[in-house]
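To the team - protoporphyrin IX containing FE complex, inputs and output below.
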Amino acid sequence: MQVKSFSRPTPITGDRAATPMQRLRQATRSAHERIELALPLFDPSLTRASYIRVLESFHGFYAPLELLCERVAGPVRKELDLASRAKTPLLVTDLGAMGRTPADLLALRRCRALPKVTLASHATGVLYVLEGATLGGEVIARHLRGALGIDASSGAAFFSGYGAQTRVMWMRFAAYVDGAAGLDLDDSIAAANGTFAALERWLTVSMTSQ
Ligand code: HEM
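Output:
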């Protein structure tokens, strides 16, 4: 069981005047804490085998969810160049580096209980979660180097995110959300929390049954 807690920006409490990004962060704070606990990445007993299970679980979640977002993203797709932000290819690269074959990848289970994503505002909420994960990924990638001796070229590309560009990519995403015309923030927040909840459920199921 993982007990380490990582510092994140100070919460903003229920302030309607807060920016959309601040409200997304505040509304998903406890869901984020639960996800950290659901991942065994900082367990002293982490092995290559348990790390591969994490990658396979993420693949089973990201592959169908990124596809869904791509379909409904609307203006977000172009504004943020969504194709350049896809994380599924990084998971495929990592699983290959860890010895999985293309046939193994095809056989992987995919999550079907995805969050509701029918509107561009939903896609923005999902993307908040998937893009934000690249920030925690910096901490995780550093840890994986020490724990398993892997880096972006040998199995940790997903957690390495955009590498040196991670902060720039996050700032661009945040600027888009904070300036997006017509964004229904309640829909985005519901989708962000729905994403964390669906991922938490999926991790519980997939990590124990693969
Ligand atoms: C053990 C696993 C994880 C750890 C240790 C972790 C840690 C962190 C840390 C330290 C930050 C703040 C980074 C900064 O601003 O400097 C962060 C941000 C964030 N993480 Fe995680 N994270 C983990 C897993 C995840 C996962 C699996 C997701 C979603 C799929 C996620 C979503 C986010 C989001 C959305 C933010 C941005 C919050 C904001 O500033 O608005 N994290 N994480």
